[in-house]
Specification:
heterodimer; A: mainly alpha; 0% strand; B: mainly alpha; 2 domains; 76% helix; globular
């Protein structure tokens, strides 16, 4: 394990520990007295309508798919950004070509109305 | 320390992977799948593959899990219902996974891995970036064309299904 990543590990463990501690503490000191009104879903004081598990609009899935594509694009930006200083002008042009090809896809999605919010 | 971290992440992977297949609420399964994929990223970091770990977190933990959760939320048949953990194919599936387990263990035991004594080169992301921009420019640009095809294909398919 690379040495400087032990900081990340400590951070991870500390994060888990703090959250567990808070949950444990509230479990220990809070009085346990559930009743029907208390167990209701809190929605700004309004009575809730229907279950919380509703079917979302299918359109969200297209947003998800587009997001995945641009997420993969973002992955390629990382090594490019790290190596940018040692490569110079040519790398910039290469990345611009890369981005513009994908930009065509974004324009296509836009024109087809796939980005229209519902 | 290294052994401790390895066992910590292996423990997380095994426990969360088991939870994925045994949890009754399919949404909890998806959450445990995210934990499982995240722990794999931890193993990647231990192997000095930082870029791969970043890919794992961004693509699998970030994007693929979102698609899986969307798919669960969009399937009305699953809404608020317990997913059956076992069905009539339980024994066949169990048998097949045992076969897979044995073949994997056998392969790993029989293969002689070439172990390099010296530590891996530092700053692997920098090397990947330099290679990507010089020797592998054509595959790199082709990736963008491939992603474009994926994007257009996804939109065409999703819209046809929608209409």
């Amino acid at each position: 394990m690379p040495a400087d990543y032990s900081v990340v590990l400590v951070f991870l463990i500390a994060g888990i520990a703090i959250v567990s501690f808070v949950f444990l503490l509230s479990r220990l000191i809070a009085p346990h007295n559930p009743y029907k009104v208390k167990n209701e879903t809190y929605e700004c004081g309004e009575p809730t309508i229907g279950p919380s598990w509703i079917q979302f609009n299918n359109h969200f899935y297209i947003f998800g798919l587009i997001f995945v594509v641009f997420d993969v694009e973002a992955i390629f930006l990382f090594p490019w950004a790290v190596a940018y200083k040692s490569l110079g002008y040519f790398a910039f042009v290469e990345m611009m070509i890369f981005i513009f090809i994908l930009l065509a896809g974004l324009v296509y999605a836009w024109k087809k109305g796939a980005l229209k919010w519902v | 320390m290294e052994a401790f971290t390895f066992y910590l992440f292996s423990f997380l992977i095994i426990i969360s992977a088991l939870a994925v297949v045994t949890m009754r609420n399919i949404f909890h399964c998806a959450l445990f799948l995210i934990l499982c994929l995240f722990s794999v990223a931890g193993i990647f970091v231990m192997l000095h593959a930082e870029f791969l770990a970043a890919v794992q977190v961004l693509i699998y933990v970030g994007a693929v899990s979102i698609l899986i959760i969307f798919a669960i939320m969009l399937t009305s048949r699953l809404a608020g219902r317990d997913a059956p953990v076992v069905n009539e194919q339980f024994f066949l599936g169990g048998f097949m996974s045992l076969v897979l387990l044995f073949s994997l263990v056998y392969t790993l035991k029989e293969t002689i891995f070439r172990v390099v004594a010296e530590p891996p080169a530092p700053q692997s992301t920098l090397r990947i970036g330099q290679m990507l921009m010089t020797d592998y420019v054509l595959p790199f640009e082709l990736v963008s064309v491939l992603l474009l095809a994926v994007l257009i294909g996804a939109i065409v398919l999703a819209r046809r299904e929608g209409n």
